Amino acid sequence: QVQLVESGGGLVQTGGSLRLSCAASGRAFSSYATGWFRQTPGKEREFVAAISRGSGRTYYQDSVKGRFTISRDNAKNTVYLQMNNMKPEDTAVYYCAADNLGRGSTAQSQYDYWGQGTQVTVSS
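User: That's the sequence. What structure does it adopt?
Assistant: Structure tokens below.
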């Protein structure tokens, strides 16, 4: 079992940056893969980025490649999502999730634990 708590959301202007954090408690976080997803009203939750356990291989949605970076600090049991050059279409509630098989999948069905989400708003 693991509990996830996101933080770092807020309001930013177009072109600005935010860093989201996902703090985990419970079972050793290093044994999980972790992903970030986002959702806007009326739309399905979509994959943003993921990082596998072990090698730390990363995966990104095409629209965020080159702008967002996912990373993890196992000593702090925390995963980060650095978001740069942000756009209004990045506005959403962002969720982190943990996959206890460590796969780093893009599919939300592969994730076992979810945080409560943090709101990110990018103004134009």
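The longest strand covers residues 18-26.
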